[in-house]
Amino acid sequence: MQPAGDEEAAPKQRVQDEIRRDIIFGSLPPGTRVTETALATKYGISRVPVREALRALEAEGFVESKPYAGSTVSKIPVDDAEDLFFVREALESATARRAARRAAAQFDSGAPSSEWWNARKLLAGILDEGDAAVAQNRLDLLPELNIRFHLGIAELSGSSSLTALLRQIAGKIEWLYATDVDNRGKESWGEHRSIIAAIDAGNFADAEKLMANHVHQSKEGYLDRFSTEQS
């Protein structure tokens, strides 16, 4: 029998994930007023988990709440973009380096663990899904696949600390990525194959360098586009 706390947490987490996803992909644009009643109806759930989800999303920066004004969807964090990319570059360079070192150790042992193989197979599936999305020009599918790929690299690194840190900013990264996917989505996705190849080869120096450049190019492309739109 599942503990009562787990039963209560499940609906809250589900609706939190669904609201966050709708914000990231534009179904709930910035400035949209969100009420417990409307969201409960939309997602087919009671108001209590919706209330808890909105509090959590406010802590994440996706929702703003003001006294007597209720809750609204926050603005896309363009002012924080450069800092978010800076943190992301440091984190993901480290995860790629560690993932390559771990891959080398797995193959040197002669028998990679089932845990490692399962994580690697998941990444292979994500890459195939992304390649298919690019071929079909379904760029709308790339933001979610992109964050799944990067979190997959973190899992492959075997570092729970780095994975947890990346998860903390993953939603904001996905939000920024979704706004720029039409401009750099195909090119950015294609860079993933070379990163995973360096990891598989156990080449930690190349894996770190390729990941750092990958994130840096995403940052430059986003900031250049944003500055052009504001000029």
Question: Quick gist of this model?
Answer:
The chain is mainly α and 231 residues long. It is 77% helix and 4% strand.
What does this protein structure show overall?
The chain has 231 residues and is mainly alpha-helical. It has two domains: 4-73, Winged helix-like DNA-binding domain superfamily/Winged helix DNA-binding domain (Arc Repressor Mutant, subunit A, Orthogonal Bundle); 78-230, GntR ligand-binding domain-like (Four Helix Bundle (Hemerythrin (Met), subunit A), Up-down Bundle), CATH 1.20.120. The chain has helices at 4-24, 36-43, 47-60, 81-108, 114-135, 142-157, 160-200, 204-230; strands at 33-34, 63-66, 70-73. Helix 4 (81-108) packs across helix 6, helix 4 (81-108) packs across helix 7 and helix 6 (142-157) crosses helix 7 (160-200). The termini are far apart. Mean pLDDT is 88; it is low at 1-8. Residues 9-76 form the HTH gntR-type domain. Pfam families: FCD, GntR. It comes from Arthrobacter subterraneus. GO terms for molecular function: DNA binding; DNA-binding transcription factor activity.
